[in-house]
Amino acid sequence: MAKLKVGLKAPEFKLISDSGDEISLSQFKGQKIMLYFYPKDDTPGCTKEACSFKDNITILKKKDIVVLGVSRDSLESHRKFVKKYKLNFPLLSDEDLTVLKKYGVWKKKTMMGKSYMGIERTTFIIDENGRISQIFPKVKVDGHVEEIINVL
Known about the structure:
This protein is of the alpha+beta class. It has one domain: Glutaredoxin (3-Layer(aba) Sandwich), CATH 3.40.30.10. Helix content is 28%, strand content 30%. The strands form 2 sheets. A 7-stranded mixed β-sheet has the order 2-1-5-4-3-8-9. Strands 6-7 form a two-stranded antiparallel ribbon. A hairpin with a 4-residue loop joins strand 1 and strand 2 (22-24). The two termini are 28 Å apart.
């Protein structure tokens, strides 16, 4: 698949959320979406990122944006994560990597000299017409929510 770029149509997806609902990109036609991909539930960076979105959800909603988080964690893992931190937006499970690969965030990573495949923390802003309007690759958690709020 070609590398996703600003202006391109965002790839369609259908995933199950922590609440058991099927969520698809097309159901949000006419709305802006913040689709963020993160490596793992209940780890320090991912928790900090999710809680920063939770703490700023009122501002994000005032900017008419829907927040969706995606990782390859199981629905049970997502449910525990949402409950533990009282997250106020859906987390979607992509255990078979379909959407992660469509969005180009399943990548070779290196840590302490070892290579492995994993999720590169990335946020996509998708406009009301389903087109990508912003891409934040290799997200640094600190200041990320402010960065998003500033571009909306």
